[in-house]
Structures are given as structure tokens and as C-alpha cells.
Amino acid sequence: MSVQVFGTAVSRGVAIGRAVMVASSRVDVAHYFVAPDRVDHEVCRLRQARDAVAGELLALKRDMPADVPHELAALLDVHLMMLHDDALTDATKAWIRERRYNAEWALSAQLEVLARQFDDMEDAYLRERKADLEQVVERVLRQLGRDPEAQPRSLLPEGNDGEPLVLVANDVAPADMMQFKRSVFTGFVTDVGGRTSHTAIVARSLDIPAVVGAREASRMIRQDDLLVIDGDAGVVIVNPSDIVLEEYRFRQQQSELERARLNRLRHTPAVTLDGQAVELLANIESPGDADAALAAGAVGVGLFRSEFLFMNRGGNLPGEDEQFEAYRQAVLAMQGLPVTIRTVDIGADKPIERMSAQEQRHEHGLNPALGLRAIRWSLSEPGMFRQQLRAILRASAFGKVRILIPMVAHGSEVRAVLEALQRARQQLDDAGRAYGRVELGAMIEVPAAAVVIDRFLADFDFVSVGTNDLIQYTLAIDRADDEVAHLYDPWHPAVLHLLHHTISRAQAHGRSVCVCGEMAGDPAFTELLLGMGLRSFSMHPARIASIKQKLLRADTRQLASLMPKVLAAERADAAMQQALADAGRSAT
Question: Known catalytic residues?
Fold first, then answer.
């Protein structure tokens, strides 16, 4: 029977595929498909982790003091029995052998199956045993997490039969989200999140249909259910009827035709109706993304997010040579076009495992968005920071490279960055290593930086505006918190005034200015940003064609004349729409 699950529409389009469930757990679980020749190894990892937990439980039972109540010993026996139960062990092995899930994913998937069986039991005592099962599984997951060979490989299963898949999860970690572009998942559904959550932003940038905040999704959807994601309406249809399925397949075909039509613009120069050339750049996370940037018609990389070289590595940070090779590959792949590399933006929703216990407590106990992140973290790790700067400088010998510093807010930070860069250059000189000239830029994403931008522009060659964080910090809204996500408003007058001030002051000082946040890739803001004087946009490659279509039809002189009224309005979005409508009528 067909069922509808409602959530928040965050990325337009239609996705149709079989459900792949990712169970939630109090233990972080990596989710990836293993290669066929690694299946036996993965089963062995599972067996070794299970045996290790069994040894722990037997040791606890053996060393138990005589005065401990016998109920505790009985509980350990229950845990041992569950640990060796075929319903857990054999079924988990089947997930590995048949689906080629990694051991952690297979175990958490089987936990989800068994947990639902416990929930359906009439006997209250038996229902409560679900908590015991969860404790046993989490012990095994922790053991698996200690395996140094258990590194995520890919969300793409080798030998997949081509059937599209849809990911269903409580939430999706940023590191997993970054693998969507290399995976078979055509869309995703999450229980939590709002329009401004990290997963929603990534979904829009990758042009993946998605519904978030569908709180009943994990409970109502089963493994292998056929799903339709309506990214326009925020609806997930579970096991749709033939008629409904045919309707959505037609809509999907229409969307593909529209994409194909837009792709024909990729070689068209990005010039407005009044002859203003606009720079359309790409945001990338790895050197392999450069091919997609070129294919989309990008004229350079406006943001290389270097932090994804640091994540999902078990705390082993990349060395200078590894970073240099990644940056060099990206520079060479862009064939002489400029590449802007942002220094590591770790923290908040992008943690790494190496953080100290004190840092981890801060990350999880306080507000991580206001803590030790981005340039603050880099300056607290001066050796690591200079290592990254040396790697970027070395890559600049192979093409045009720019360095972008995230979350700058204080003059002391600027001075520390300049000193670190000078020392990195000196170290390369002493070692006889080649490097080229690099431009240094500041990311304007803290309101304080936007307000005093004139002071920063003397030390920086360019600025890039990270609108996602600028909006978050200006409005004091945690964009990952769906309780307040409705207050996250890119059209808020304070946000627009800071944005306009940043663009105008940078241009007054003769500095280039780019917007690399989500607003740059959203056609709803293209005319606004052009009217403010912006001539450089950086976005995910999938968004370039639709932004180019918008600017090809724009007249920047006319848009600039609308800005005083828009910036003075309480509801800038309505004022912008009305002004465009009035301008259109007067033109006819």
C-alpha cells in the first residue's frame, strides 16, 4: 500500500529509487560499500570484533565481586546470548555478503531490523530487551571503530546493477554527503534538518532531490521500499501506485530535458545584456571535481574546500607532500585557470578525529559554530598551518593559485597569518623548493569583518563572502537547528546591508570580491547580487548553467537603480520582486 511521508522541501526535482536504510546510533558509524574481494575480510572484521566483545563480557563476569547481585551476572549472560544469536550474527554477515555493506553498516542495519521486531512484541519485558540489544551492538561497533584498516572507501558499490538508490537516514554526516557526487544515490531523505541545515545546503549545491525533517521516515520506510522523492513539494511517496509512478517518471524526464537545454549554455560567455562580463567559478572539495568544473563552463575554482582532505582519516592528518600532490593535481586539471584554495575550515559541522578531549568537549558541549574553528584552529596548530601553507605555495609553481583564509575577524589574526605565510616562504627558500606568487584573500563571514572591512583590505588582495555563515552569525541562528531554522533569512535587511557594504568597499579599494556561499548558486539572488555590483560568483558546478541563464537576461544598470528601494525595504524579497515586475512593465 502506498504511503506518503511529509517533510521540508530543500532541493528541487524528482528522485525515484529503492530505499537504502542507514540506522541511527549513539556510535558514529561509517557507511560504505566494500569491493567484492574485500567481503571475506569484512566478515572477518565482524567476527574479530564480536569475539573481542565476548572476551570483555566474560572477563567482566569472571572478575565480578561476590557481593554483586546475581541479576547483573544474568544480564551479562543475556548480552552474551544476544552477541552469538544467529538473528544478529548470521543476518549481519548476509548484509555484508549480499549487499556488500561494510561491517559497521551491516551491523547497524540488522539492529534496525531487530529493534522493530522488539517494538512489535506484546510482552513488556521482551520489548525492554531492545535496550540490551542496542548496548551489545554498540560494544561491537566500538570494537570495529578501533580497527586501523576500517577506513571508508566509497558509497559507490562496484558491480551495482544500475538500479537507482535513495538514502534514508536520521541525518547524513558532511563527510558522507561529499561522496554523493560519486555514488549511485539519486536522492535522500532524513528524519531531521531544515532548509538551512548542512545536508540541505549540500543537496541544493549538488542538485540532488531531497526531503529533510521527515520525522517518521526511518520508522515508516523499510529496506528496498520503492520511493519517490518530490523535492518540490517535500513529500516522499513509499511504494507508489503504477499511475503515480508513471506521473513522476514523466516529471523526471522533463527535468532531464531542462538540464540538457541549460547545458548547451556552458560555452556561452557569461555577459549581461548591457555588456558586463561576469566570472562564474566553481566550488570543489577534491582534485577530481575539477573535471566537472571545466565541463560546466567554470572559468576557475573560487573555493577549494581543503578540509575534506583532513576528514574521515581516524585522526591521521595529511602530510605536506600529500596535500601538495592534491593541490597540484587540482591546479593542473584546471589547465591554467585560477584555483582558490581555502585553508582548512575544521570545526562546527566538520570535526576531525584528532581534536583533543578538551576540544571535543567544547565542540559537543557548547556552541561549536562559535568555538575553535577555521583560522582559529589553524593558528592554534601553527606547525600544521605552516605545513598547509607550504603545500599550497609549492602547488602555485604549477599554475595560478590564490590562498583564502576563513573566518577572519581580528587584526591579530591577520598579522599572525601574514607572519605564518612569510615563514612558510622562508622555509621553502631554505629547502630550495620552488613556488610561485600567490594572492592572499580573506573570507568575509563574520559580521565584524564586514563592518571593518576597510582595515582588512590593506593586507588582502581579494575577499570572498561566505554567505552561509554571514547570515548565521548576523541573525544568531544555528542553521543546523531545525527549531530555529525558519528564522534563517538571507533577505533580512541586516544581511543585505552587510553584503552590499562588503562588495562596495572592496570595489572602492580596487580589490576583487566574490560570493562563494549558497546565495551565489541560487537563481533567486542572482539579480540582487548583480545589482549590488557583484561580478564574481562561485558555486557548485551543477548550479553554473542556471545562474548563467539568469545573468544572460539581466541588465546590471537597471538592477543597480533598484537597489536603494530594495535595501530600504522591510521585506526585501517582496520589494525586489515588485521592482522587477515594475521594470518589466515599463520596458514593454
Answer: 198, 516
